[in-house]
Amino acid sequence: MTWLVTGGAGYIGSHVVSALRGAGMQAVVIDSLSSGHREFVPDDVPFVHGTILDSELVARTMLDHGVTGVIHLAGFKYAGVSVQEPLLTYQQNVTGTAELLKAMELAEVGHLVFSSSAATYGTPTGNIVTEDTPTQPESPYGESKLIGEWLIRDQGRARGLKHTSLRYFNVVGSGSPELYDTSPHNLFPIVLRALTAGKTPRINGTDYNTADGTCVRDYVHVADLATSHVAAARALAAGRPLERVYNLGSGDGLSVRQIMTAMAKVTGIDFEPEIGPRRAGDPDRIVADGTLAARDLDWKMRHSVEDMVASAYEAQKRAAAARI
C-alpha cells in the first residue's frame, strides 16, 4: 500500500514518513510548508507542495501515486494561539479535513489514520485520561480536532471509510538528528533554546499538588508515536478492527521539574530554573492511559526522559550548526 501523509514535512509527519519507510511501506507527502520543512522529506519520497484545502489537488495526488490510505497530520496545531485565531484554526482543521475526506471519496481511498489531540478532553476531572473520559475541549484547537473526529466518523457511516483517531499530549525528542521540533510554543525547544543562548528556563508554579510541586503531564517520544501511526495504518490495511479513538499516553507522566533536571544532566549546563506564578487553569496532573493502544497499535514508551532530552538536544545542535 501507498500512504499519503498530509503534513509530512512537519515535525511529527516527517517521523511518520520515516517509520513508514522503515516498515517497507511507500509514502507520498503533501504539505503547504506553512510550518513544515521541505528538507525533512527524503529526496526519493514524492512531495507535493499544496494544501489539503484544495481537494482537487489532493485527489489528483492520490490517483497519480496509487494512494490507498491516508495518515492525516496536516493542520494548525497551536492551542494557545487558536484562541486568538479561531477562524484560521477552523479553516485549517475542520474545512481542511472535510476537503480531504471529499478528495478521498473522489479517489476511492478508504483508509484513514487521523492525528487528533488530547486537547479534545479539555481539563478532565480525573488525573488519568481514558478513551471514555468525556470530551470537553477548551480551545478552538481542541474543538476543531473533535469536530474532525466527528466528520471522519460520519463519513465512515456514510461511505464505509475505515478509520481511527489517535489522541496524545506533548510530543518530544527526535528519531533522527535531521528531524527536530521547530515550534515556538513547545516546552522542549523553548528550554533548549534558552539554555544554548545562556538564558535561564522558567517553571510556572511550584505549588501544585504533586510530588515535587510542579505540574505533571504526558511527554511521549516522537519516534514511539510514529511507530503507532504506522501500526494503525497496517491494521486498517489488513482489515483488522480498530477502536474509533486511542490514547497514546504514558500512564504516569513527568513533572516539569523532572524535565528541567534531565535537561541539566543531559546538556551538562548546570542551572536552577526561575520560578514564576502558576498559570490560571493549569491542573495538577493530566496523563493518558495507553492500555488500548498497547493492545492494538504496538504502543509503548520505549524512551526514558533522558533519551527524550538527548535526542532533542542532538537534533537542535545539528540544526544550529547547519545555520552557521
TrEMBL record:
Cofactor(s) the record lists: NAD(+)
Pfam families xref list: Epimerase
Family note: Belongs to the NAD(P)-dependent epimerase/dehydratase family.
Pathway the protein acts in: Carbohydrate metabolism; galactose metabolism
Signal peptide boundaries: none
Keywords tagged on the record: Carbohydrate metabolism, Isomerase, NAD
Superkingdom in the source lineage: Bacteria
InterPro entries reported in the protein's UniProt record: Epimerase_deHydtase, NAD(P)-bd_dom_sf, UDP_G4E
Protein name: UDP-glucose 4-epimerase
One Gene Ontology term of the molecular function aspect: UDP-glucose 4-epimerase activity
Lineage: Bacteria, Bacillati, Actinomycetota, Actinomycetes, Micrococcales
UniProt domain NAD-dependent epimerase/dehydratase: residue ranges: 3-249
